[in-house]
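Technical note accompanying the year-one report. For the benefit of new consortium partners, we illustrate the data format agreed upon in the data management plan: each record pairs a sequence with a C-alpha cell string. No post-processing was applied to the example shown here.
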Amino acid sequence: MSGPAGWRRLDGRVVLVPVVLALLPLVPTAAVMLVAGTKPAGVAAMAGIWAACAALLAVTTGLDWWFGSYRIGEERVELRKGVLSRSHRSLPRDRIRSVDLTADPMHRVLGLSVVKIGTGAQGDGELKLDALARSDAERIRAALLLRESTADGAADDAPDGPRDGELARLRPVWLLYSGATMSLILAVWGAIASAFGSFSELLAKFGVYRLVGEEIRAVPLWLAIGAPVVAVVLVGVLGSLLLSVELWWGFTLTRESTGTLRVRRGLLTQRSISLEESRLRGVELAEPLLLRWVGGARTNAIATGLSDAEGGKQPDAKTLLPPAPRAEARRVAAEVLREENFPADGFTAHPRAALRRRITWGLLVALPFAAAAVVAAVLGWIPLAPAAAVVPSVALLAIAFGVDAYRNLGHRLHGAYLVGRRGTGLRRTVALRRDGIIGWRFEQSVFQRRSGLLDVVATTAAGSGRCTIPDVRAGNGLLLAEAAVPGLLTPFLEPAPPINTREE
C-alpha cells in the first residue's frame, strides 16, 4: 500500500503474528491447570483474561501498523512508526552494508520476512522492517545491495580468485560434528534444567522425584551414578544435534556479483545474512577441544560491524561455515580470502619460556582440585587411595593441557595476512589482513618481563578489535610488527644490534 511521496505501509498480515503467538500457549496451559486439579471455573476465567489480553494486543499492534510506514528513496531508507510517541529514522543508502532476512515459523506460514538493514556501524546503525511479503523483502534486498560500481564494471577489478557463485553447501552428515560442540550441549542442558524448574511442583505432585529416589536406592552405587551421567551426556549430544538441524539446515554460502557474501540457513526459522566483502578483514578458524578431537572446525568472518559481545549482533552472524570437517573449513576460508590455501601450517615456534608459563598456569588451576581431595581424605569423607590418585592425575592433566597450549602457539606472515594461532580449550587460527591493522600494542606482565617475553597485539576495526600473539621474544615481537606493517612503528624505534629472527 503506497502513500504520498512514496511512503508504504508494512504488510498488514504482521498484525496476526503477535496475536497468534500469544494465543498458542493457551491450550497447553489450560491442560496443565486441569491436570494439576484446578477447577474448570478457574481455567475458564484464566482463558477469558488471556483472550482479552490477546484482543488488546491485536488493537495495539494494529495501531502500530496503521501509523507506521517506510520509504526506499534514491538516497535514504526511512522508517516512521509510533502512535503516541512518533519516531523517524533513516539510513543513507550509500552506507548500507548488509540486508538480512529472517522468517520464523509464524512469518513463514503468513509468507512474511523481517528485513534488517545495517550500515556496519556500532550502536544505532540498523533499521528493521517487521514485516514485509517475502517477494518484497527479496526485491528490497537486491535493490539496496546493488552497487553502481558493480554496474560500471568495477567487479572486474576484484582480486584474482574464485568466481561468483556457491562456495559451500551443508552436507547432512556434517551435522554430526555438532554433537561435539560444547556450547550447543550446554544450551540443551540449560533448557532442560529450566523446564524441570518450571514443572517442579507438578513432578513432585505425581511422585516422580520419589519414584526416581527409590529406583536409585535399589541399584548398586556405580549404576546409580553412571546411568544418570550417561543419560545426561546422551541427551545433551542428541539435543545438540536437533538444535544444529534447526540452526544450519539448508546452509549455503554464496558470493554474489554485488561483492557480497550471503549465508542462508535454518529449518524452522529461515535466515539470510549478508556480509559485504569490502568489510572483510580476515577469517578465523575456530576449533573447540571436543570438535578438534573429531577432526572438525568452523569458519568465522572477521569484519567491521560484527560485534563479538553478547549484546551485539546475532551470535552466528559471523559464521561462514558451521561445524564441518577441518579440511572443508580450511577450503572455505581460502575461498573467502581468495587464496590458494588457508595458512594453517608452517608457524614460527615460540620460546621455551612460553611452555613453562602454560604448564605453570595449568598447575595453578589444578591446585584447588588436588587440595580439595587431600582435605576430603584428611576429614575422612573419602578413602585415602582415591585422594592419592587424584593429585598426580590432575597434575598430569594440567601438564598435558599446558603442552597442548604451547604446541598450538604460533605465528607467521603469509602474503597479505598476519596469521596467529593460540588456545587449547578453543584453538583459534586468525588470518588478519595486514592492511586492516591500524595500530600495535605491546603488553608485558611482570613475569613476562623476567622471561624476556611480551604479547604483540594488532589492533583493527573488525571483530573484537584486536588480534593477540602471546609470549613472543621481545625483540622479535617488534620486528614482527614492523615487517607486518612497514613504517607504522618506524617513528618509535631506535637502532639496535641485529636480532636473530628465529624463535628459540
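Partners are asked to follow this layout when depositing records. The chain has three domains: 4-145, 164-342, 352-407.
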